[in-house]
C-alpha cells in the first residue's frame, strides 16, 4: 500500500512540474507580444527649422521633434558644448543636411556618444552640382528631385526606428511626393512653351531648381550681361534674369595661426560680388527680372520651392512667345 501511495505522489509531482515547465514559455511569449505591440516615442533633433518641417511632414503628430537653429545665419554661428553633446547623444535621431551646410557638423558628430543614436545625412544619394572651382553646391534642398531624395532618407530613418508604423510613414511620404509631382507636372507643361528661352543669373543658389525645371541657365557672375548675350547669341526678348531676394551673406571665419602665436582671421563669404562696369550702366538691357527666395522661416521647403517655381513661370509669361 505504501508503495502505491509513494507511486501516486511521485506521479503527481511529475505532472505538476511538467505543467509548470510548459506554461512558463507561454507567459513569456505573451509579454513579448505586448512589448512588440507598444507604441514607441522617438526623440528627434534636426539642425534647422526646414529639416524639422520635413520630419513633421512624415511623422505628423507622432514623436518629439526639435531643431537647433531658427535660420541659416544661426547655423553658421552655432556653437556646441558638453550639455548639447550629451543631450543629442541621448536622442533617437539626429538629422543634418550635409554638403557643407553645417561647417561644424563633422567635429560635432565625432564627439557624440553614439549608443542607439541614429545619425542621418539627408544628402545621401544626391548627385551634387559643383561651382566652377570644383566645390560642391550645397543648396540641393531647393531642388525638386533632390528634396524628394532627402525626404526619402528622413522617412527611411524613422521607419527603421519605428517599424510598427512603417506603412503610416510611407503614406505620409507618398502624399507629400504626389503633391510636389502634381504641381511640377503642371508647371513643366507650361514651361514647354519657353524651352528655347534662357535664364541669366548671378547666383548659384537656384541651380538645382532651374535644372529640375529643364531650363537653360547661364551664370553671369563677374561678366557683363550684354557681353554674354553677344557671346552666346541670345535674343534679348527670350531671356529673364534670376537673382536672389535679400541674399544672406554667410561668413566663415578661417583662423590661421602665425609663427608668433597670434591667430589671423580671414573672412570668406558664400557669394562673390557681381562686377558691372560703368559702360553697362549707361546701356542697360531691357530684361525681365525675378527675385527668388532661398530661406523663408514661415514656409516649408515644399512651399518655398513651389513659390519660386511660380515666380519663374509668371515672369516667363510676361515675355512674348517668339518662334523661330
From TrEMBL:
Cellular localization per UniProt: Cell envelope
GO molecular function, one term: metal ion binding
Entry keyword Transmembrane: no
GO biological process: metal ion transport
Superkingdom field: Bacteria
Signal peptide bounds: none
Keyword Transport: yes
Keywords from the UniProt entry: Coiled coil, Metal-binding, Signal, Transport
Protein name: Metal ABC transporter substrate-binding protein
Record-level GO cellular component terms: cell envelope
Gene3D superfamilies reported in the protein's UniProt record: Nitrogenase molybdenum iron protein domain
Any coiled-coil regions, as ranges: 170-197
Provenance organism: Clostridium gasigenes
Amino acid at each position: 500500500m505504501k508503495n502505491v501511495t509513494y507511486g501516486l505522489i511521485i506521479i503527481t509531482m511529475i505532472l505538476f512540474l511538467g505543467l509548470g515547465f510548459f506554461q512558463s514559455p507561454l507567459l513569456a511569449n505573451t509579454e513579448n507580444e505586448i512589448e512588440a505591440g507598444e507604441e514607441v516615442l522617438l526623440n528627434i533633433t534636426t539642425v534647422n527649422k526646414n529639416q524639422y518641417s520635413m520630419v513633421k511632414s512624415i511623422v505628423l503628430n507622432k514623436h518629439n521633434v526639435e531643431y537647433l537653429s531658427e535660420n541659416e545665419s544661426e547655423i553658421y554661428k552655432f556653437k556646441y558644448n558638453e550639455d548639447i553633446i550629451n543631450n543629442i547623444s541621448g536622442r533617437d535621431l539626429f538629422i543634418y543636411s550635409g554638403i557643407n551646410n553645417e561647417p561644424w557638423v563633422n567635429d560635432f558628430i565625432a564627439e557624440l556618444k553614439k549608443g542607439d543614436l541614429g545619425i542621418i545625412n539627408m544628402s545621401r544619394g544626391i548627385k551634387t552640382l559643383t561651382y566652377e572651382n570644383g566645390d560642391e553646391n550645397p543648396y540641393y534642398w531647393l531642388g525638386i528631385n533632390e528634396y524628394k531624395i532627402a525626404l526619402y532618407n528622413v522617412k527611411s530613418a524613422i521607419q527603421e526606428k519605428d517599424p510598427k508604423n512603417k506603412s503610416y510613414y510611407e503614406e505620409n511620404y507618398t502624399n507629400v511626393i504626389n503633391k510636389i509631382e502634381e504641381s511640377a507636372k503642371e508647371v513643366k507643361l507650361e514651361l514647354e512653351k519657353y524651352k528655347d528661352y534662357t535664364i541669366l543669373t548671378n547666383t548659384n543658389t537656384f541651380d538645382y531648381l532651374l535644372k529640375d525645371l529643364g531650363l537653360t541657365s547661364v551664370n553671369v557672375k563677374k561678366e557683363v550681361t550684354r557681353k554674354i548675350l553677344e557671346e552666346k547669341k541670345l535674343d534679348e526678348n527670350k531671356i529673364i534674369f534670376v537673382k536672389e531676394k535679400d541674399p544672406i551673406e554667410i561668413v566663415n571665419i578661417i583662423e590661421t595661426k602665425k609663427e608668433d602665436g597670434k591667430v589671423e582671421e580671414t573672412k570668406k563669404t558664400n557669394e562673390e560680388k557681381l562686377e558691372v562696369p560703368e559702360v553697362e550702366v549707361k546701356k542697360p538691357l531691357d530684361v525681365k527680372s525675378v527675385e527668388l527666395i532661398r530661406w523663408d522661416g514661415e514656409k516649408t521647403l515644399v512651399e518655398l520651392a513651389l513659390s519660386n517655381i511660380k515666380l519663374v513661370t509668371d515672369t516667363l509669361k510676361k515675355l512674348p512667345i517668339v518662334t523661330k
